[in-house]
């Protein structure tokens, strides 16, 4: 459930619609520290400081997968009275859905929780343009324990934001979320 403090933080983050135009596409710290070519004695300076659109997309998809497949602290420990902890990296992840039936799922709540987690922990996605939608179709009856989410929005990048469209399948038996790039838009 999204608290008043979390709503205020989301509203504050939503005002972050763009970053300084002088910023370049840079990898996150983890990617800077990851040695893709350990056989090389000397790293190329450009590859450690600037990335292209494809690398950005790959990095965001990987990080979203980690985020959505991590159970947050709030789901196992009450954080009432600790509003700042609720929105900190200590609470990284989402509420688990493993073991629930499709009929028990509150779709609106799932949408809000996933959206809040993305806004808190994925700053490369512009919060004002982010939409998370539960998708139920007749074909979903065949996969009665799989919930589909559509995640769409724009990634911050220079010279202009790139659109993305992702489909997430949530296995309600295991809780595992699989993210697929649907290839619509620029990402």
Brief characterization of the structure:
The protein has 187 residues and is α+β, with helices and mostly antiparallel strands.
Which key features would you list for this structure?
187 residues; alpha+beta; Nuclear Transport Factor 2, Chain: A; 6 helices
Could you characterize the architecture of this molecule?
The protein has 187 residues and is of the alpha+beta class. It has a single domain (4-181), classed as Nuclear Transport Factor 2, Chain: A, CATH 3.10.450. It is built from six helices and four strands; from the N terminus they run ααααααββββ. The chain has helices at 4-14, 29-33, 45-49, 53-68, 83-86, 107-121, and strands at residues 131-135, 146-155, 162-171, 177-181. The protein has a four-stranded antiparallel beta sheet, covered by helices on one side. A hairpin with a 5-residue loop joins strand 3 and strand 4 (177-181). The longest helix has 16 residues, at 53-68. The radius of gyration is 18 Å and the shape is globular. It holds the Pfam family GPW_gp25. Residues 55-159 form the IraD/Gp25-like domain.
Helical amount: 25-40%
Sketch the major β-sheet: 4 strands, antiparallel
Outline = globular
Question: How many beta-strand segments?
Answer: 4
Distance between the termini: 30 Å
Which band does the percent of strand residues land in? 15-25%
Strand order of the largest sheet: 1-2-3-4
Tell me the name of the CATH class: Alpha Beta
What layout of secondary structure does this protein have?
Elements: H1 4-14, H2 29-33, H3 45-49, H4 53-68, H5 83-86, H6 107-121, E1 131-135, E2 146-155, E3 162-171, E4 177-181
Domain IraD/Gp25-like: 55-159
Pfam family, one: GPW_gp25
InterPro entries: IraD/Gp25-like, T6SS_TssE1-like, TssE1-like
């Amino acid at each position: 459930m999204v608290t008043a403090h979390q709503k205020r933080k989301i509203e504050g983050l939503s005002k972050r619609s763009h970053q300084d135009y002088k910023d370049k596409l840079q990898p996150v710290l983890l990617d800077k520290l990851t040695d893709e070519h350990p056989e090389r004695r000397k790293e190329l300076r450009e590859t450690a400081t600037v990335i292209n659109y494809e690398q950005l997309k790959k990095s965001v998809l990987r990080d979203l997968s980690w985020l959505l497949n991590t159970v947050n602290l709030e789901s196992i420990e009450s954080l009432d009275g600790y509003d700042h902890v609720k929105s900190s990296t200590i609470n990284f992840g989402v509420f688990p859905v493993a073991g629930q039936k499709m009929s028990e799922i509150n779709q609106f709540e799932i949408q809000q929780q996933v959206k809040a987690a993305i806004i808190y922990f994925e700053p490369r996605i512009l919060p004002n343009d982010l939409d998370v939608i539960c998708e139920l179709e007749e074909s979903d009856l065949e996969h009665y324990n799989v919930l589909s989410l559509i995640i769409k929005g724009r990634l911050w990048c220079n010279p202009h934001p790139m659109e993305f469209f992702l489909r997430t399948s949530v296995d309600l038996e295991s809780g595992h979320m699989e993210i697929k790039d649907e290839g619509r838009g620029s990402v």
